[in-house]
Amino acid sequence: MKNKIMVRRLFAILLLAWLFTLPAQAQFAGGWTKVDEVRSQYQTITVVDGPKGMRQMIFDGKFDGTDAVQSEMDKARPTDLTLSYAKHMMAALPLAAKQNHIMIIGLGGACLQRYMRELMPGVTVETAELDPAVVDVAKKYFGLVTDDKQKVNVGDGRKFLEGSKDKYDLIILDAFSATSIPYLLATREFLQTCKAHLNEGGAVAANLWVTLPEYQDMLKTYDAVYPEWHRVRCPRSSNEILLAFSVRRELSAEKWMTDCKEFEKGHATGLELESLVEKGMQGVHVFSPGAKVLLDADAARHQEP
Question: Does 297 map to a domain?
């Protein structure tokens, strides 16, 4: 009898010791739970799970309702797009003359990469991500799989593109810190590099925040580099998708919607791209009087603290 009691006590002690080794799962407002937190040399990356099966990636989170969601995944349907900006970004696909080789600057939780792998398995999607910890988190918690069709290059995305001999059918700019777009990924010189790496009939698609103080300057810079560009606003968010071409196309909303309709005949996006363009395409932009072109030479004055 004494032996049984000792065994039970020992088991209880071991169980408690094991429980204390489990990662703490902090509770946030709205039923969100912290799954993991990783401190990298660039930022703190937090993975949180929500009550409706959603998983999100947050950079340098305050968890006061003001944090930008870097990436989101429905754990039950991991290849679906859930964020408004990600859905609207797919409206760029029909505007690329081909969809063979796509370049993405910025990985996050790999929502765009997962979706395009499912939608177009024969397409090569190449990504440049500065923070190796983001890549590790995307693989561990967001289902990122890399192979010869899904490539991730760890390092500065601008330097990668500058050193690349490849050209791309679509270049997607989706790199963010917790609060902004890196300045050197918005300058005239960088946008010229993107333009030089487009295949004939290619396009650049950029995820912008309209609330950024530099928003008007960013548009002015695109206007200085690309002969034609268009914007689609994303409802219920501060995101806007900008599409830019290296040659003039005289693209109208009607033509863009027709291209979306044709694209979806061969690709079941589930997004109704035609409707997204119809509701979100913006008219000709009128620049604010103080808007200026962003230049590499001014980078020192725009570095984040």
Answer: yes
